[in-house]
Amino acid sequence: MRGIFITFEGGEGAGKSTQIRRLAAVLESYGLSVALTREPGGTPLAEAIRGLILTHEAASEDGLTQALLFAAARRDHVLRVIRPALSAGHVVLCDRFADSTRAYQGGKVPDAVLEQVIALGADGLVPDLTFLLDVNPELGLERARSRFTGVEDTFERSNLAFHREVRRRFHAIAASEPHRFIIIDASQDEAYVAESIRLAVRQRILAAPGAGA
Ligand code: T5A
Q1: Which residues contact residue 32 at a Cβ distance below 8 angstroms, ignoring those fewer than 6 apart?
Q2: Separation of alpha carbons 76 and 96, rounded Å
Q3: Higher pLDDT, 52 or 213
């Protein structure tokens, strides 16, 4: 049986990593086998590309350069980690995926070109379910900076107008695929957000015919 592919999207500091860990623990308590991963990253090659994109010295301002690098990292990740895990029947929880390219690099690259790059990078893989953790950028950046590690990455350094545009793009993407997206108010406290996500997964995925849980 093919596994289930669930992605978490949203702006900086929305709580994606926090909620993925919580959902993984819940699904494991249901007896499911869970693979937790992230983008950019998830393989040695993709983690190396992550370092190149997100560190100040190597960062490029060019949207197509960024999209191609994210796509190269994603392709390695999909081929070596995500597809094998899905073939083995695991629930794959991924912190960011192709929608982040649409939200962050969109507007800097013509839409048709961006979609071609995304299709190649994702090897045609589309998530079964995507949570958009929605928070205003002021709060998200405040949270991200509250666990500040010393250096802001390429996108955290961008101005507030850019982060507002990213949020607008995420909403437009979600509106264009309402069957795939669930928008969660991520300004709520951590436990409330976790319960909203748990309920949605039970209703939308685990209760589906043939899901077996
Ligand atoms: N990018 C990525 C692109 O431009 N294109 C692409 O195609 C891809 C894949 C990745 C960057 O790359 C860009 C987008 C990003 O800028 P990253 O380090 O992975 O960089 O950045 P984020 O995914 O944004 O990671 P963050 O850690 O900043 O955000 P999270 O994971 O959403 O937030 P989390 O869980 O770490 O929480 C942040 C803080 O808030 C607290 C947590 O305890 C933590 O301290 N918190 C809450 N506090 C109050 N209430 C809640 N509900 C809370 N939830 C979490």
Answers
A1: 90, 91, 213
A2: 15
A3: 52
Nearest CA to ligand 1 atom 46: 15
The residue among 69, 65, 131, 60 whose CA lies nearest residue 96 is 131
Which one of 143, 146, 148, 154 would you pick to mutate in the ligand 1 pocket, going by the greatest count of ligand atoms within 8 A of its CB?
A: 143
Q: Are 28 and 119 in contact (CB under 8 A)?
A: no
State the distance from the centre of ligand 1 to the C-alpha of 210, rounded, in angstroms.
33
Q: Which of 9, 17, 53, 60 to mutate to test the pocket of ligand 1 (most atoms within 8 A of CB)?
A: 17
**193 CA closest ligand 1 atom index:** 52
pLDDT digits (tens, 9 = 90+) for 47-61: 999 999 988 666 788
| Length reported for the chain | 213
C-alpha distances in Å from residue 41, one per residue of 30, 79, 85: 27, 13, 16
The CB of 148 under 6 Å from ligand 1? The reply is no
Report the C-alpha gap between 175 and 169 in whole angstroms: 10
DSSP 8-state code for residue 106: B
The structure's pTM equals 0.95
Give the 3-state secondary structure of residue 195: helix
